[in-house]
Give the backbone structure.
Amino acid sequence: MSTLSVFFEVPAVIDYGLRTGILERVGGVVRDASTKQVVTWLRDSGIVEETLGTLQGGASSLKNPINAVLSVSQTITAMDSPLKRTAANAVGQQVTQGIQQVSSLPLQMLTGNGVSLAFTAMTLLYILRRIDKVSKQIDDLITQVNAQFERDRRIAFRAALISAKDVLEAERPETRQNALPEAVNGLTRAKMNFMEDFEAAIKRAQADDRYVELAQYFLLQACYAASAVAQCYARENETRLAAERLNEQLKELRPAVKSLIEAWMTSTPGFYLHPWLDRDTMERAISLRAWLRGERINTRENKAHVITEIVDELRRDLWNNRAKFESRHPITKFVSERRGAGTTQDTLVQRYQRGLEQSIQLVETIERLDGYEQELRSIRLSISEWSNQVDKSQLERYGGALIVDNEALQKVEQRLARRPVR
């Protein structure tokens, strides 16, 4: 059996593997992109308010390399971290050169502000802290659009979470076992109710962005409920059952996330190619469209980088010849309809940029659940042993940690050492 190690610094091989696409992060795990074998499990300190505040303060405020992987900020390359200092010892001079050449991370490594799960594994503590605020935001939106959604459903959800808290925290096995059925049944009903509300909101999303926001809040709570059910089963060491139940939920949640992303990107996503939007926004939109197709691309790497440069050149030429193009294109109609009273170029750009940020948060949310499902399937120890892999005092001191499968990491290191540097 492969041994496990705990790191409070990001090994260069993991950093470079992520940047070159040999490794990929899916929620709270890093896995081999080809074999899908989990190489690294991410752990955060659980200090939710502090970490979310750091995220909202901007990527440049991140203090350590573990948080950089958890948040996956583009500024990781500018940080004075142990990554480059240890690169030569970790994987040789060839990989060191490769690390120095990389300028950014792929789409799945990006995250935005607001309702994001970038720093958390959807722990029950986090969910309980968030739902009251989310419920208030839902009520405000419902009042604005004069819509009908049942508030009692959210109250029942909170009650189910309290039962789940008993399952997770009770010391006596009989107490946990007695609380488990009520918690699981309540959370399952809540998830079904939230999905009904989501479907009702998404049907009206194209007509009013406030319904898009409502749909996002309902879907977020459905994800919370699915995560909490899995946590309850895992607490009783039913990890296989926890993974199976979560996988069943993901089959419904993944398509819902994609439909909501389509709503955020509007019926004319081609506007992301308009020169009003900066190149970074265009690149991320291209990566997001790839994700919707089941692909992962890094638009700043190798051939993808060249393709992006070409598209950037062509879109400017296209709109320079607007007399031949804009008169009959649906994007023109979309822009014209929205450039009425109070609508400006700036507000249009802001709308599309916000849609992109919200979409990236949705990707992070669903991949957190995907990563949790993979983690449950890959655990080789009891839950209590697994939870104690990282000392809590060190976790809080460093803000995060990596649990690394040494054998899997060695295989990645060997592959990277053979990889030609471009």
